[in-house]
């Protein structure tokens, strides 16, 4: 397996994963979306709510606020050996909020019992309070998996495509392929049409250039064992940590399967 990083920021990444099968690549994608545990608000104790939103609407908004997650400290509640799933400092975090209008309540107004666990984005609006309106609550965040609820989904835009392979031979430089290409990656030299190695990855494999070529000079295919990955994190993890945790999940499942098979 080889990984070639093309772009990397705190919340997004683009890389080429090669020398792997399609099933492995899809396993990494699914792990990013569904199998990397995160913290999310699950229960809300409302002590005072005179805002325009119903209690249930507030709870829904709070549950969808991404929280920075420390996977080394917290475990999913269902897997907690300390409390057996009842709720304890090993699997849950308390966040409180007390606000009075006029003004807008933001995610940064949530006060966490653990300074490491904070909203991933401090500027998410929760509700606008008019003069005299109040909101006082306690929110309980638990660790969970994206496969159980979207509020625990750390990967919000994870996908891949096969690495395109573009072959151009005996081109007569008619220009039809360049006009048809929606990505605008086909250029012309004295010898005919060319696509630079940097632009090959931009190809969407639509094959419009291939279809419009009257002399069959262009052939579009793909590498079955190489994939261009694009991914984004909701902020629970950095993009790098999300990808590494997804790989650890796939590795752990493989080791678990081997241990089961060894029993027979």
UniProtKB/TrEMBL annotation:
Location relative to the cell: Cytoplasm
Name the record gives this protein: DNA-directed RNA polymerase subunit Rpo3
GO biological process: DNA-templated transcription
Top-level class of the enzyme under EC nomenclature: transferase
Subunit structure: Part of the RNA polymerase complex.
Cross-referenced Pfam families: RNA_pol_A_bac, RNA_pol_L
GO molecular function, one term: protein dimerization activity
Top-level taxon of the source organism: Archaea
Record InterPro entries: 4Fe4S_Fe-S-bd (IPR017896), 4Fe4S_Fe_S_CS (IPR017900), DNA-dir_RNA_pol_30-40kDasu_CS (IPR001514), DNA-dir_RNA_pol_insert (IPR011262), DNA-dir_RNA_pol_RpoA/D/Rpb3 (IPR011263), RBP11-like (IPR036603), RNAP_Rpo3/Rpb3/RPAC1 (IPR022842), RNApol_insert_sf (IPR036643)
Main location, first listed in the record: cytoplasm
Protein's organism: Methanosarcina barkeri 3
Cofactor note: Binds 1 [3Fe-4S] cluster.
Catalysed reactions, semicolon-separated: RNA(n) + a ribonucleoside 5'-triphosphate = RNA(n+1) + diphosphate
Function summary: DNA-dependent RNA polymerase (RNAP) catalyzes the transcription of DNA into RNA using the four ribonucleoside triphosphates as substrates.
Keyword Signal: no
Binding, [3Fe-4S] cluster: 203, 206, 209
Cofactor: [3Fe-4S] cluster
Gene that this polypeptide is encoded by: rpo3
């Amino acid at each position: 397996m080889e990984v070639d990083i093309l772009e990397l920021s705190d919340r997004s990444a683009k890389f080429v994963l090669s020398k792997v099968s399609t099933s492995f690549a899809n396993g990494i994608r699914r792990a990013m979306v569904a199998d990397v545990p995160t913290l999310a608000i699950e229960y809300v104790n409302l002590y005072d709510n005179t805002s325009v939103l119903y209690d249930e609407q507030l709870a829904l908004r709070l549950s969808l606020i991404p929280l920075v997650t420390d996977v080394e400290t917290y475990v999913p509640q269902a897997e907690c050996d300390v409390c057996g799933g009842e709720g304890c400092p090993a699997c849950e975090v308390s966040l409180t909020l007390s606000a009075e209008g006029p003004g807008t309540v933001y995610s940064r107004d949530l006060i966490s019992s653990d300074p490491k666990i904070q909203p991933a984005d401090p500027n998410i609006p929760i509700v606008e309070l008019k003069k005299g309106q109040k909101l006082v609550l306690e929110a309980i965040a638990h660790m969970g998996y994206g496969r159980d609820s979207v509020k625990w989904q750390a990967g919000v835009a994870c996908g891949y495509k096969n690495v395109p392979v573009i072959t151009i031979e005996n081109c007569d430089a008619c220009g039809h392929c360049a006009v048809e290409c929606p990505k605008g990656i086909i250029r012309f030299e004295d010898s005919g049409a060319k696509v630079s190695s940097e632009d090959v990855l931009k190809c969407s494999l639509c094959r419009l250039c291939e279809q419009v070529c009257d002399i069959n000079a262009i052939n579009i295919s793909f590498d079955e064992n190489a994939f261009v990955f694009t991914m984004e994190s909701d902020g629970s993890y950095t993009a790098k940590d999300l990808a590494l945790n997804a790989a650890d999940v796939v590795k752990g499942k493989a080791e678990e399967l081997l241990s089961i098979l060894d029993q027979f």
